[in-house]
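Thread: UDP-3-O-(3-hydroxymyristoyl)glucosamine N-acyltransferase, structure

OP (GT): Posting the sequence first so everyone is looking at the same thing. Length is 329 residues per the record. Can we get the structure tokens written out before standup tomorrow? I want them in the notebook alongside the other entries.
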Amino acid sequence: MVDSRFFPRHSGVSISELADAIGARQSEPASNSTIISGAASLSTASVGDVSAIGSDTHPDLLSATRASAVICPDRFRVHVPSGCSALIADDVPAAFALAAALLYPDALRPVPPMGVKGISPEAAIDPQAHLEQEVTVEAGSVIGADARLGAGTIVGSGSVVGPGCCVGKNCYIGSGVSVQNALIGNGVILHCGARIGHGGLSGGQSGSGGNSIVQIGRVIVQDNVEIGANTTVERGTLDDTVVGEGTRIDSLVRIGQNVRVGRLCTIVGQAGISGNVSIGDRVVIGGNTGVGSHLNIGDEAMIASMSTVAGDVPAGARWSGNPAGPARA
């Protein structure tokens, strides 16, 4: 259920306004005046809520819902109960995502734990750091020499932005995040515990044991990237590690040194990307997938969860398995 302590209900929008915002078609224009102020699952929804039917939802669950509106494909219209407005959408998940974003805008961007704007007197900020207007740095955070924070950026409690690092405008750095040897673009979200720009395992074996190679590259995170909790992005060895614009990386993902992730990619939780991998634009990598080093993954490729990638993946390919290969139709 949605707990209003954490995510307060919206003041309300009419069903017609909601339909326009999400690009849905109304089944009952007479219901225009009904006010929608929240979102919920079919089984927990009540008056004032909008819900949605999933691809595997049984029609009986839809018929029993108490929601005021349901986003659904046209074929499910007949199962929508009386008093509930059907909002017909071709892409139900996308339409529901738009509705939820409209009703709970604060849930799209994390809220710092102290909830206070400005610089905490308990933050440690080097005199040579450069902070633009309306920056928030919470208690226990450390900002190093020559670090730069753009206007509107928030640094949650207990985080570290290392010397020389640059963080763009309107970024959110969650609690317990470390940013080292990195340049961060605008509108970036780093969730709690993310580790950006640390060194990783590199080098080879000799008779005396492992030999570490100095890592003197950077991490470049482009605009509007989101990186999940406890995800690690290692700095490059000689070249940079790059995460492209608009990419979303889930929690507990490992990005190795010198990896280049393209634009608008999605990498799901517990995936591991070995060093020196090149990933194209709009690639999707499923959870618990491992990608070997020195590989290329082409634009718009999709790799299923729990796959092991040991060879180059062509652009547009659909791969799965261990070792991964073309998925069966």
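GT: Both are above now. Quick notes for whoever picks this up: The chain is about 10% helix and 30% strand. The mean pLDDT is 92.
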